[in-house]
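Example record used in the benchmark description.
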Amino acid sequence: MNRHSQSIRRSTTLTAGILSAVLTVVPPAIYFVMAFSHMTGVIETEGEINARVVGTLVVANPKMWEFEELRLKELLARRSTDTAETRVLYNLKGQVIAESSDQVLRPLLSQAFPVYDAGHQVANLVVSRSLAPTLMVTTLLFCLGALAAGFTFFRLRTVPLRAIENAYRNLKQSEEKYRSVYESLNEGLALYRTIPVGGAEIDLVLADINPTAVSVFGFGRDDIGKSILQLQGGLFAPVREALQGAPAEVSLELTQEGAGRVFTVNAFAMGDGMVATLLEDVTEKKRSAEQLENLAYYDSLTGLLNRRMLLDRMEHTLGTAQRDGIKMATLFFDLNGFKPINDTMGHEAGDQILIEVARRLKSSVRKKDTLARLGGDEFVVVATLDTEDNASCIAQNLLRKLAPVYEVGGREVFVGASIGISIYPDDGTAPETLLKNADIAMYNAKKPGIEFCFYSAQMNQKLQERTRLEFELWMALEREEFFLEYQPIMDARTGRIAAVEALVRWMSPEKGRVMPDSFIPLAEATGIIVPLGEWVLKTACTKLRQWLDAGCLPIRMSVNISGCHFMRSELCRMVEEAAEQTGVDLGLLELELTETCLVKDVEETAAKLWYLKGLNVSIGIDDFGTGYSSLQYLKNFPIDHLKIDRAFIKNVCELPDERAIVEAIIGIAKAMELHVIAEGVETLEQAQYLAHRGCDELQGYYYHRPLSEERLLEVLREERERFEQGTVGGACEAGAGGGADVAAPVAVME
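Model output (structure tokens):
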């Protein structure tokens, strides 16, 4: 150690000295050279500029310039920087003609610059700056460098020796830690010395053991020096056999007969003819693994098979059905009425019901059948059968078992079930396919009056068509394939267009023109109605703004708002954004809502409607009379218009009951000072009757079908011309355009 320390001391001393000298001299030298060069460049620039300025004065006064001392001093006093410097103008005889008044410290850095008159030198300008600041900073850097050099020299001299001492100390500590870890390991550690016994074979002789090997694995200190074949009755003999041929590492699992204990042994070479074996008792781990494996295949709540084990059993049953040439039924259960019970009575009550359902199903299926719970309230039964009729019998029997009431928390509740059935090989040949098809059939069984339903290709086709149509709807939004048509709403008193209703249409590249009945229900079910409704609202406002800018008179624009759209979106914010973006007066906008969406959340609905009313938006109830007609919401909500559903208008002139309903609606609306609109007006007789009964506005094919924007504007122009000529009579005589297309709220052309 001393020899190495002396060598390191000499080399570090030399290195420290060189580095210290560099730190002391180089930084101040570099600074001085750079500062001196910079000052020289500045002086040259300043001197040349001032020499030219003085030369200009000389040229202007060739005879008298030497007597212009004040002007010369003024020129010499001009500075481009705040740094002090002296400027002295000498004639060719060396006499001072003028000089600046700056005072600078010595030593000075000076340069002379000639002053010319017509190409002849007539004077010299000497510019000087003080070197004192530069020398002071250089001295300061020298001192700082000396301090840094001293610190560096000290560190380089002491650190290596301390590192050596720390290395030896750490080595000693590592040995102590190794011994501590060796003795405190939870695993048993046994060290063996390899001894050749002839040929390529070796024997392992125990050299050392840690305390865990003694206390847990039964080794003793008197075992040291014995062959591995003599230890623990030859339990570890396989380790010796596995190490023949000098493998780098072996891992074995050994079972101690009689005690039922299981050990894992990891043996690896340590060098110098030593082999270490790490012993671990994994008896409890093995038991836990078996329990976990059991949990991985069974539902923890009901004890039934889970999905993973179900698929495995289905594979086995499919093989049997294929081999024996029989059918296999997959019955997919979903409990009816379970979610409300779970939500109102709590999850503990829901768990009790699931356990009871599992018990009833277990008692109903055959031993050779498979019963599983997929999760939630979904169960599956897999059974082999001779005909599909047997599957019906199984389903009916299971439904009877599930029908009796359940006692939960001292209450009696009823839980039914819907069952979807898929048959192998008709509906699929793979477990996942049969499960999927049974699931599809189960959803069809949710319809009223149906308890179980077989899968059919038509069901799957409808599902695929629904999925494809949903994708096409999203793409249609992105590709801007939707457009609006407009149906005029006529004033029953004057016969003129009072408003237009915006109606969305879809022009699909593949399907052509698609009517709303084909895609609106799916759009509502999937949530696409929200972005679609936003597009309709903003587009309708944009069109209305364009019509107004084109010279149309203000007219009401009616936009249908889906109940899903009304409840799930920020409708008020959307209306404000549409008004802000288009600049349209919200007093011309009418939102049509259905009765069903008004009664879902009365408080939230009222808040939204009153907010919209504060924006001056008109609120109309569409299809009035077909939903939850209630005087309560007519009284509490800020409703402006009631639109009588076309179902009541169709036979209003033929059926007394229909007339009574229509007259009652009109009477209620008038009593509550509400505006009444009748839609679906298709005949002159209907128009006359409704107008005479006090209906305010009329809409239907008798007047106009839904119109394109271009056709609507033409109709408005024609109407204006007719009224200007006085040829248009009352409301009942105004309808003659029964062949036009759909229209939306628009303005009458001026």
